[in-house]
Design a protein that fits this description.
- The protein is mostly helical and about 100 residues long.
- The chain is built from four helices and two strands.
- The chain has helices at about 5-20, 20-30, 30-45, 60-90, and strands spanning about 50-55, 55-60.
- The longest helix is centred in the last third of the chain and has 28 residues, at about 60-90.
């Protein structure tokens, strides 16, 4: 993976919020190995660990905290963009000329 992927970022944010790979997998309706793969892909892309794993606890590393914060914004922007486009397609919003 050479570029950021919104699904992988969503996985990272969900793990950070829930503190658990297993809970993130359940919430995102993904298999646990898929969640692990998403994080491994991001860590390979970044070149640093994004999560600190300790006895039953998972939290973002320093680099992970930075990426989680930015990922939240990216995901919110992507969701907003999709909502705007859907509304325009449905005729609920138009361009002002």
């Amino acid at each position: 993976m050479r570029e950021l992927n919104l699904d992988r970022l969503r996985t990272l944010v969900t793990i950070a919020d829930l503190g658990s790979f297993a809970e993130a997998a359940r919430t995102l309706h993904l298999a646990p190995p898929t969640v692990s793969l998403h994080i491994a892909d991001l860590e390979a892309l970044i070149g640093a660990p994004l999560l600190v794993r300790k006895r039953g606890e998972v939290r973002p590393s320093g680099a992970g905290e930075v990426l989680v914060e930015r990922a939240r914004r990216l995901l919110a922007d992507a969701d907003e963009a999709m909502d705007l486009v859907r509304r325009q397609v449905q005729g609920l919003e138009g361009r002002v000329r």
